[in-house]
Amino acid sequence: MSNLSHKSATSNTLLGPPQGVPLPRASAGLQLPTTAPQKLKSNADCSGSATGNPRNKCALKPGYSLMSWIRLCNSGEDLSGTGGRVVPVTRSELALHNKVTDAWMAIRGRVFNVTRYMDFHPGGVDELMRGVGQDATTLFDKVHAWVNYPQLLGKCYVGPLKENAPGPLTETDSLKTDTRDSKPVEIVPRFDWIQQRSELTLFFYTRSFSNPGLIVRRKDPQQLVARVFLESRWHTFDLQLAGKVEWPPKAVRVGTETGKIELVLAKEEPAPWSSYGTHTSRKLDSLDTQEEMYEYEVLASNDFNHDSFELSLQSVQMEVLMVLPVGHHVNIQVPVNGVEIQRSYTPVDHSYLPSETNSLASSVSLHFLIKRYTNGPVSSHLHQLQPGCRLHLSAPRGGFMLSDITANRNILLLAAGSGLTPILNIIPHLLKRNTNRIESLHLYYFNKTEADIWLRDKLQNLQTQDERFICTHILSQAEEQPQRISSELLSPLFKEKQPDRCTYAAICGPTSFNTAAEDVLKSLNVKPNQIHIFRG
Ligand code: HEM
């Protein structure tokens, strides 16, 4: 048996993306989605309704592969039929474009010309035709909420559906989910798997920019409980695997843009399996998990600067793997004078930490930068913990939605002191975004003095590597020109009619800083729905 990705011969589910296919450069337009669809059935087999049979893929005609679609999208051809103009569309106008040779479709308040996509649609022409001439949001989500349609159909965009988006299409409303006339459809993660001889990969498909989280607990070498956190709900998958796997997982990847989660496990005995095993699934409200705590132990703790330290934790016996949604935090609980006290902390990527800590990192470790407050019982307790000491972590918490900022290309991040951690967390995701690529990402980082600045070199490196990222340090106790947050400071970023005007701001700092920042932004006419405040 070769060492290629495969499933049992009878399975018709998703295979891995094609190997060795040259991808277009990031800046060259549409990219191959990581959920690259593969052809598995002939057209004759493509019967059954979309909703009745969720795996209902068709063979595509030669020359109509995903790669060919990407090539067509990048060819400069006018796929929207509007000559590059954005044209608002009324419902009655939309209804006129309901033929195979002239097919428009609205999804979340945006109208796409799908005529040229017909033969490229992995679900077949007939299925795609079910949604043309109308608002197809509900149908689309029912069949495949995880498909990244803004990316695939970017070049087919005609304009906003008039009732949904009155007035001109602006950066802040162009890509937002519009739920005014289409009820929000709950996303239920879809499970899939592939294998190599020595590896099993489990997939959980959610929706693009749905910002999922993941907790996996190993019960024994054949039993895993995987929980996917999505829109305040936990979806639990109890998996009984066909064979034994090693632990911890070799890798875990969460595609923030695709919403695809991949968990790569090494098989104890390399051999092809006839199936992954079996699973049952159920869902829980996040309230049900509010009280749940996970036991972690200290891997390392080192001073980081004059009043802060880094703390690396690992799940006890490596039992639990936890991946937080971007911009979310956990509560760390410690006993203080016999009472359990919790504080919220956002983990940072291990690459931000010194190299000796980096070597301890694995898929089951979490790393924190913590400011030590003289009168802070939790930070003082955490600071004196030695390797091997145990503590409890909550499940991920938070209200940050990546989908809220999909439409924004010019974004301001305001961080004060240790409030840098959730901000650090979102920066790479924003800079990597291909859909609606970021044009400028400003970080204003507020501290008292130079000595308080965290990760100055790393922030500087990031700025050197990507010119769209601009970091400005503001010091309230600088020897020369001390500064604080003010409208004078931020107004150049919010000038009316300026093409690179910021249209979104995320804030994280102490409460007094958050309030002052919010007031300044409001005075600059930034709307409440364009501001996110990280609150612990
Ligand atoms: C609203 C009407 C639509 C219907 C009824 C429909 C139906 C289907 C069906 C039945 C499948 C096969 C399902 C499966 O294998 O899981 C499919 C796959 C797919 N469709 Fe659609 N579709 C619609 C619109 C669209 C649009 C507008 C796009 C463009 C972005 C699209 C992109 C895809 C892709 C990429 C797949 C492969 C998904 C995967 O492999 O997970 N579909 N569709």
TrEMBL record:
Any one GO cellular component localisation term in the record:
endoplasmic reticulum
Per the record, the similarity remark reads: Belongs to the flavoprotein pyridine nucleotide cytochrome reductase family.
This protein's major location comes to: endoplasmic reticulum
- Alphabetically ordered keywords of this record: Endoplasmic reticulum, Heme, Iron, Metal-binding, Oxidoreductase
Q: Which residues form a coiled coil?
A: none
Q: Which Gene3D superfamilies match?
A: Cytochrome b5-like heme/steroid binding domain, Nucleotide-binding domain of ferredoxin-NADP reductase (FNR) module, Translation factors
Q: Under what name is this protein listed?
A: Cytochrome b5 reductase 4
Which superkingdom heads the taxonomic lineage of this protein's source?
Eukaryota
In residue numbers, the region (Disordered) covers: 1-29
Residues forming the FAD-binding FR-type domain are 291-403
So which residues are the signal peptide here? none
- Output the InterPro entries linked to this UniProt entry: Cbr1-like_FAD-bd_dom, Cyt_B5-like_heme/steroid-bd, Cyt_B5-like_heme/steroid_sf, Cyt_B5_heme-BS, Cytochrome_b5/Flavoprotein_Rdt, FAD-bd_FR_type, FNR_nucleotide-bd, HSP20-like_chaperone
Comp. bias (Polar residues): 1-14
Q: Name one GO biological process term.
A: superoxide metabolic process
GO MF entries: cytochrome-b5 reductase activity, acting on NAD(P)H; heme binding; metal ion binding
Which parts of the sequence belong to the Cytochrome b5 heme-binding domain? 86-162
Q: List localization entries.
A: Endoplasmic reticulum
